[in-house]
Amino acid sequence: MQRNSIPLAVHVLLEYGVGVLTILSPFLFSFDDDAAKIVAVLIGAGIVVLAVVSDAPTGLARTLPNASHVVIDYVLGLLLIVAPFVFGFSGDDTAATAYFIALGLGYVVLAVLTRYQDVKPA
Asked: In degrees rounded to 5, what are phi and psi of residue 6?
């Protein structure tokens, strides 16, 4: 096992939780902006779908190759960071802005630390 790496199975389990948390975030953190609420629910649902289709032991459908998963993770992290500015709620809804930026940064860190392929003995 590589040091400082998270197995893909654990990564996908975290995605299930993060997806549900993101769906619930407008209600848990009292988002004010309607766009922030809609984007949170849609992105949260997308994260759950990503977890379901991931080719990992904890994926249910296991149809998404790991090479695609890693790209989606980085794109998703970037999307989360820029979402408050792209969807126009960065100035009006500080709770939503903070949530999206923190989640995006966390997602990028998770992607960096994840071992997307099994380490095979030499």
From this structure: -105, 130
Q: Which amino acid is at 90?
A: S
Q: What pLDDT is stored for residue 88 in this prediction?
A: 95
Token digits of residue 54: 């991931």
CA atoms within 13 A on the CB side of 17: 8
Q: What is the pLDDT of residue 28?
A: 97
Cβ pair 47, 18 in contact under 8 A? yes
Nearest to 87 by CA among 39, 26, 23: 39
Report residue 7 CA to chain centroid gap: 16
Which band of pLDDT confidence, cut at 50, 70 and 90, is reported for residue 90?
very high
Long-range contact set of residues 81-87: C-beta below 8 Å, sequence gap at least 24: 81/105, 81/108, 83/39, 83/43, 84/36, 87/35, 87/36, 87/39
Task: Provide the whole-model pTM.
Answer: 0.90
Q: d(Cα 29, Cα 32) in Å, to the nearest integer?
A: 9
Residues 6+ apart with CB under 8 A from 74: 108, 111
Site of tokens 């309607």: 34
Note the pLDDT of residue 45.
98
